Amino acid sequence: MFTGIVAAVGNITSVNPLGASEDAGVQLTIDAGGLPLEDVALGDSITLNGACMTVVAKTATGFTVDVSRESLNHTAGLDAVGPVNLEKALTLAERLGGHLVSGHVDGLGVVQRFEPIGESWQLVVLAPKDLAKYLAYKGSVVVNGVSLTVNTIDDAADGCRFSINLIPHTIEVTTLRYLKAGSKVNLEIDLIARYVERMLSISK
Question: pTM higher than 0.90, yes or no?
Answer without folding.
Answer: yes
